[in-house]
Write a structure and sequence with these properties.
By secondary structure, the protein is of the alpha/beta class. It is built from 9 helices and 14 strands.
């Protein structure tokens, strides 16, 4: 009997060492519910979108969220929420976190702490039909460039313009705030602006969907980190640490890289999971 007890204890200890962090590592409320509620908005392909064939949520963030939930022994429940309402919804407890390609920014860290899971960068692009006269980012000096006003891209466009246009005696870029990236592309196609900015993770997808439409200008001119936000509470901190550990294990097992590859996002591999390192 003693030998069996020792064996049972050894097996239990081994299981504790190798078993992935499960629901016992998350807050009691979430463990009891058996699910993690995640806000998203399916308007940012290939990060999060609706599969046109099934009308179901799809994208890198969706697959990653499902994998994180599984790693924690939970189910993922998705709530479609307007981007501007995501952090307030988290603060009120409607959702536990967000997966929507949200940039980890110092201003957002006033109310939330982030686990950074993907790198990104602001990328200039124009129409293929304009590529004859707009060949490089420097050709945008004196022109109008649109970007979603809910991001920091309009400000970054102005900063780039100051350093690369104005400082060199060229006319400044006019940064145009749009209702989102879809609106920016619409304004570009209708001639209201001459170029636009999106995250470099999205442009290969749209070039595939709309061949011979868009022309990418140079390389990404900024680098940012997309993160999952969590409330600045003891429960939020506990969940944040559990999610960070889950992503680290997904990286070690190769599942993170596999999900990136599913959407052609190998260049956006974060390499190392960090917290609150966005700039």
């Amino acid at each position: 009997m003693r030998r069996l007890s020792v064996l049972a204890l050894s097996l239990a200890a081994f299981a504790t060492c190798v078993m992935p962090a499960a629901a016992q590592d998350v807050p009691a409320r979430i463990k009891q519910a058996g699910k993690i509620v995640i806000a998203t908005m399916p308007n940012y392909a290939p990060i999060t979108f609706k599969d046109p064939a099934t009308d179901k949520l799809a994208g890198f963030d969706i697959e990653l969220g499902e994998a994180i939930a599984k790693e924690l022994g939970l189910k993922a429940e998705w709530q479609e929420i307007a981007f501007a309402q995501m952090l307030p919804s988290m603060q009120t407890g409607r959702v536990d976190t967000v997966l929507a390609g949200m940039s980890d920014l110092p201003t957002r860290r006033e109310t939330a702490d982030f686990v950074d899971y993907m790198k990104s960068g602001a990328q200039f692009f124009t129409l293929q039909s304009l590529a004859g006269s707009i060949k490089t980012p420097e050709d945008l000096c004196g022109k109008s460039v649109g970007a979603s006003r809910s991001t920091n891209w309009p400000r970054q466009i102005e900063e780039w313009s100051q350093a690369n246009c104005v400082a060199k005696g060229k006319p400044a870029i006019t940064a145009v705030g749009t209702e989102g990236s879809v609106d920016a592309r619409t304004q570009l196609k209708t001639g209201r602006i001459q170029a636009a900015v999106q995250g470099n993770e999205t442009l290969p997808w749209f070039q595939k969907l709309e061949p011979n439409t868009y022309f990418v200008l140079g390389q990404a001119f900024t680098q940012s980190l997309a993160g999952m936000p969590f409330p600045k509470t003891p429960e939020g901190e506990q969940l944040r640490k559990a999610v960070k550990g889950a992503i680290e294990r997904l990286i070690t097992k190769g599942e993170y890289a596999k999900i990136l590859a599913n959407y052609g996002l190998q260049a956006n591999n974060v390499g190392r999971v960090s917290e609150n390192e966005g700039k």
